[in-house]
């Protein structure tokens, strides 16, 4: 019975870590300082689809309509909750507000299998390189929703020394949902706006880009 | 009800045991010299009358000419409390002995004080930044911190 | 034939489904057995202690909501108690009762979440979690009736609460409290005899009482190890000394005991709420406090028994409108010291369960 139990008392402690990790921490720190110097201007929102709809004379083809329908009806988000807003996102996924009716109840742990990044919560400079890496690992087509005041502009913590003032410095954003935290109904409204946006995509236009 | 011990009696005992280590005492607070932190803490922990086995928090305050470290000690057995303070006047390289060998709960708290205020703890096994990243310039909670 | 093995390092990075937020662990593994683990956090460090020095005392209440965002009412309570201690303000009776009802409802909501996520990590994928969310939504409806918010309430004020409860609040609370024990019993019946739960949680992550006290652990984790220390009984604040309730303690200190603590504490919270609703007087809800509060020079420390442990605020005032220094003693940050003790020698699957049973919230760890 002794072997089955785990856990220990006070005896051995403060022994040095087996894997000396100060080099990894220094490299991470350099990446963070580099990110802080690099990302100073916000990335422009991708709203060019609004003008082109009017200027384009060709209507969406049936193929486009079919592809857009399938893309917007089963968007899979990635587990990207940062802080308090994450709990409103989880509440949206729970049984009362039921995000599953929009086809989105599968939250993928790996960004490679997902197409939506809902940034909920405050992004700090320490997390910024990792978040950029998560965004880059997602395959096209991918979308980003900035949920909550902290993701839109830094929110309550804007003047802090370690907070990124808005995630659009790091990644391009499609839909902004204000609130602190936004209600689950607000998140669902934002998702419906995103679905409206996806309705207007065209694969022909994408090839020109 | 937790009893806040009167500091004057305790400081008399501490003066008897470690002469010259107590700077002042009032209410529930004793201010001691930084060099004798470890000895006095060890005395307070191991003496059966006091038996301070639980350190509730360790923090630091920046009064512009000196740093003040605050230790809030509780004894679960006797249900009494005591506040211990030390002052470091050196602003360039402030340094205080670490109490990690007595109370393991002091480990992360001392690292946080080092990270945010810049006070080094001698004898701490793993003193490196905990909340901010390696390479961050400066110590944010100091009053003269200028963000870039 | 001899095998040569070496240990390797695995990073359970900041974005990971089982790490309750942005928490990173660097495991040094020998096969599946953990030889060493280093917890790395700070990915949500927002600098709240520095930001509070720039705003006045009433404006700082919003920061306290975002500390442990699942228990906003308790955080508000601790902060407001510290400021009232500093400034010497006495609150009216009705306020005290309202505050206690809100914090105990918050305790039930927080424990529901903890138990739900712990079972999620044990492998019962979403079912218990969604049941817990269903009950939690009812509590959030009650809070929305009172202050209009679902998560970060900002309900307490210095010297009182922001607004009085509407008439339909107490009947709704009574209806909810009467139905809750049946729900907890139904839940318990599904899980208490479950062989997988028992095998995966009994005798895993045992924490001895001496180690717990030495590591400054607080909350249900400390009580599961057998140490009878609950701030509501040991150092009563507000009017907790008027209520009768028990403090459950465990015997072994393993994961199962910590799970049991939370279920029992929910029952005790129900008792307190019933007594408070029977005794609450009518009256005003806000003491006379100047609009811009300038507490006298000095310092104060007030701590409460938050659902996750001991939450305390140490405030130093220099006589002006803003605090000179505000330190947050958060239980999750200090309880994390246990990780290295408890995880070395276990397998990864057990390690995740141990981590879930300590129950941290990253907002409080990183502040």
Could you tell me the radius of gyration of chain B in angstroms? 16 Å
Strand residue content of chain B: 25-35%
- List the domain count of chain C as a whole number: 1
Number of E-state strands of chain C: 8
Query: H/E element string of chain B?
Result: EHEEHEEEEHE
How would you state the average pLDDT of chain C, rounded?
89
Distinct helical segment count of chain C = 15
What spatial form of chain C do the alpha-carbon principal axes imply?
globular
The main pleated sheet of chain B reads as:
6 strands, mixed
Distance between the termini of chain B: 47 Å
Mind explaining what this structure looks like?
The complex is a heterotrimer of chains A (209), B (148) and C (367). With 209 residues, chain A is of the alpha/beta class. Helices cover 40% and strands 7% of the residues of chain A. Chain A is built from eight helices and four strands; from the N terminus they run αααβαβαβαβαα. Chain A has a four-stranded parallel sheet. In chain A, strand 3, helix 6 (149-153) and strand 4 (175-177) form a beta-alpha-beta unit. In chain A, helix 3 (62-73) packs antiparallel against helix 7 and helix 4 packs across helix 7 (184-199). Chain B has 148 residues and is of the alpha/beta class. Chain B contains three helices and eight strands. In chain B, strands 1, 2, 3, 4, 5 and 6 form a six-stranded mixed sheet that branches. In chain B, strands 7-8 form a two-stranded parallel sheet. Chain B starts with a strand and ends in a 26-residue tail after the last strand. By secondary structure, chain C is of the alpha+beta class. Chain C has one domain (47-366): Cytochrome-c3 Hydrogenase, chain B (Orthogonal Bundle). Helices cover 47% and strands 13% of the residues of chain C. In chain C, the strands form three sheets. Chain C has a three-stranded antiparallel sheet. In chain C, strands 6-7-8 form a three-stranded antiparallel sheet. In chain C, strands 4-5 form a two-stranded antiparallel ribbon. In chain C, a hairpin with a 2-residue loop joins strand 4 and strand 5. In chain C, helix 4 runs antiparallel to helix 5, helix 4 (93-122) runs antiparallel to helix 11 (255-279) and helix 5 runs antiparallel to helix 6. The model of chain C has no long low-confidence stretch (mean pLDDT 89). The chains are: A alpha/beta (209), B alpha/beta (148), C alpha+beta (367). The interface between B and C is medium-sized, with 31 and 33 residues.
């Amino acid at each position: 019975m002794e072997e089955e139990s785990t856990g220990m008392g006070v005896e051995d402690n403060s022994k040095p870590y087996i894997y000396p990790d100060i080099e990894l921490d220094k490299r991470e720190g350099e990446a963070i300082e580099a990110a802080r110097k690099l990302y100073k201007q916000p990335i422009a929102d991708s709203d060019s689809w609004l003008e082109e709809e009017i200027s384009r004379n060709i209507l969406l083809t049936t193929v486009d309509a079919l592809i857009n329908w399938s893309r917007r009806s089963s968007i899979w988000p990635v587990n990207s909750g940062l802080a308090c807003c994450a709990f409103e996102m989880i509440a949206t996924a729970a049984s009362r507000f039921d995000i599953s009716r929009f086809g989105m109840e599968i939250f993928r742990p790996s960004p490679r299998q997902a197409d939506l990044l809902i940034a909920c919560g405050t992004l700090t400079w320490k997390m910024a390189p990792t978040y950029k890496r998560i965004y880059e690992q997602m395959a096209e087509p991918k979308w980003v929703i900035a949920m909550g005041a902290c993701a839109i502009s830094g929110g309550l913590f804007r003047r802090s020394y370690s907070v990124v003032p808005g995630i659009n410095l790091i990644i391009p954003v499609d839909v902004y949902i204000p609130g602190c935290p936004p209600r689950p109904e607000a998140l669902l409204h934002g998702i419906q706006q995103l679905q409206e946006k996806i309705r207007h995509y065209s694969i022909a236009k994408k090839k020109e880009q | 009800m937790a009893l806040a011990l009167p500091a004057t009696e305790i400081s008399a005992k501490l003066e008897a045991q470690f002469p010259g280590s107590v700077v002042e005492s009032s209410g529930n607070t004793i201010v001691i010299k930084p060099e004798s932190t470890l000895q006095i803490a060890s005395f307070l922990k191991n003496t059966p009358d006091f038996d301070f086995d639980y350190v509730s928090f360790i923090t630091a305050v920046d009064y512009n000419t000196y740093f003040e470290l605050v230790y809030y000690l509780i004894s679960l057995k006797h249900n009494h409390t005591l506040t211990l303070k030390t002052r470091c006047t050196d602003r360039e390289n402030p340094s205080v002995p670490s109490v990690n060998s007595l109370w393991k709960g002091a480990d992360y708290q001392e690292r946080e004080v080092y990270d945010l205020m810049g006070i080094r703890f001698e004898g701490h096994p793993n003193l490196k930044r905990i909340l901010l990243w390696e390479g961050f310039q400066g110590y944010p909670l100091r009053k003269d911190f200028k963000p870039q | 034939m001899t095998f040569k093995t070496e240990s390797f390092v695995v990073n359970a990075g900041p974005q990971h489904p089982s790490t309750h937020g942005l928490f990173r662990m660097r495991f040094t593994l020998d096969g599946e057995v953990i030889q060493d683990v280093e917890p790395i956090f700070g990915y949500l460090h927002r600098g709240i202690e520095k930001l509070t020095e720039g705003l006045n005392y009433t404006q700082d209440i919003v920061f306290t909501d975002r500390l442990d965002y699942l228990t906003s009412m308790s955080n508000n309570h601790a902060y407001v108690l510290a400021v009232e201690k500093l400034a010497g303000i006495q609150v009216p009776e009705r306020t005290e009762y309202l505050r206690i009802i809100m914090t105990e409802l918050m305790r039930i909501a927080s424990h529901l979440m903890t138990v739900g996520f712990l079972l999620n990590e044990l492998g019962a994928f979403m079912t218990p979690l969604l049941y817990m969310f269903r009950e939690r939504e009812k509590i959030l409806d009650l809070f929305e009736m009172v202050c209009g918010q679902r998560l970060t309430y900002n309900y307490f004020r210095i010297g009182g609460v922001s607004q009085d409860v509407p008439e339909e609040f107490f009947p709704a609370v009574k209806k909810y409290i009467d139905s809750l024990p049946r729900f907890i019993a139904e839940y318990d019946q599904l899980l208490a005899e479950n062989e997988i739960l028992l095998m995966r949680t009994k005798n895993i992550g045992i924490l001895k009482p001496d180690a717990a006290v030495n590591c400054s652990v607080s909350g249900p984790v400390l009580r599961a190890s057998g140490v009878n220390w609950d701030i509501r009984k040991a150092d009563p604040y507000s009017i907790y000394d008027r209520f009768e309730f028990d403090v459950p303690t465990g015997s072994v200190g393993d994961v199962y005991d910590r799970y049991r603590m939370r279920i029992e504490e929910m029952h005790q919270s129900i008792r307190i709420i019933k007594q408070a609703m029977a005794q609450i007087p009518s009256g005003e809800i806000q003491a006379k406090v100047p609009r811009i509060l300038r507490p006298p020079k000095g310092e104060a420390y007030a701590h409460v028994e938050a659902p996750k442990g001991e939450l305390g605020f140490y405030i130093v005032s220099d006589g002006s409108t803003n605090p000179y220094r505000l330190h947050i003693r958060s239980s999750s940050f200090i309880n994390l010291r246990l990780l290295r003790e408890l995880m070395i020698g276990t397998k990864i699957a057990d390690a995740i369960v141990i981590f879930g049973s300590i129950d941290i919230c990253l907002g409080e760890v990183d502040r």
